[in-house]
TrEMBL record:
Signal peptide: none annotated. Pfam families: GST_N (PF02798). Its EC number is 2.5.1.18. This is glutathione transferase. InterPro entries: Glutathione-S-Trfase_C_sf (IPR036282), Glutathione_S-Trfase (IPR040079), Glutathione_S-Trfase_N (IPR004045), Thioredoxin-like_sf (IPR036249). PANTHER family: GLUTATHIONE S-TRANSFERASE 1 (PTHR44051:SF9), GLUTATHIONE S-TRANSFERASE-RELATED (PTHR44051).
Amino acid sequence: MIIVHHLNNSRSQRILWLLEELGLPYEIKHYKRKSDKLAPKELYDVHPLGKSPVITDTSRNEVVAESGAIIDYIIKYYGKGQGLPSDDNQDADNFWKQFAEASFMPTVVMKFVFMIVPTQAPFFVRPVVSMITNQIQQRFTDPDLKRKVEFSAQALKDRDSTGRTWIAGGDSNGGPTAADYQMLFPFEAITSGRMDANAVPQVIQNWVDWVHARPAYRRAYEKGGPYDYAKL
């Protein structure tokens, strides 16, 4: 049995989607963020990093952390062929699942941090902090994020002009692969109202809406509880 240690408003939502797509039985152990938005200390009892997602596989006596590692683990041991790209698309699948967390998400997180920092600064220094963070965003963060968003949008367009397609071609049954599960969170992050909607290409919004309409995603959403990155 797979136990998902699920933190609200976190990357663990994509693990629930994967499990629902594969039709696997699993349990959810819910954890709630503290008032400072950080994970609770109870997650350190599961894994030394104290982060989510993390799963416990009681059948194999394994604890697995990190989204990419979890996704690969579940597909490898329980997918029965689902979630695997075609031979021709293996390199693309590997690229996108690495790109999601190694390149895309760090820039998204930096953008969100610089948006929040001025609101947390003491009132008398807030104008200075705001000026500095705005300059950093304009010179570095925003152009970098724009490149990554447009690059991802073009990849979807290259496969389907509407964006309603799997980013690495999908598996043999027409379902998502690891690339899609990994790209879900950054795509949800930029389409959840935290960014200017005009800066999000329509193909990415189409992709997110398309995924959100899938029965497996809806089941995962219902079981996962409150999730600010999707409103179904």
